[in-house]
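Support request, please re-run this one:
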Amino acid sequence: MIMRNLLSILLVSVSLLWGCLTPMAIADNLNFDQGAEIFSVHCVGCHAGGGNIIRRGKNLKQRALQRNGYDSIEAIAEIVSNGKSNMSAYSDRLSVPEIQQVAAYVLDQAEKNWR
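Re-run finished. Output below.
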């Protein structure tokens, strides 16, 4: 019984530690060039230059991302994966690493004011 409890504690600890390290590991492996390529294929039709041809206020500019709660790679990846309202979901077309890369690219471009 003691061994089982120790094993449970160890597994929970490792899971928590893994959860804390995963965003840093993802950030280290991002490729902005690949993110730009994915964006140009899948996103630029509606979001050229960080804009939004469907809903003007839901653009990819830094102020709009912050206002709408999409100012992190994780939040952008979530909406890219699952979509929302007029935004299509891309989890069936893009892999998790591709979604992370395009999310990082969007955040990086927003910080540069899409220049």
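The chain has six helices and no strands. Residues 20-28 have pLDDT under 50 and may be disordered.
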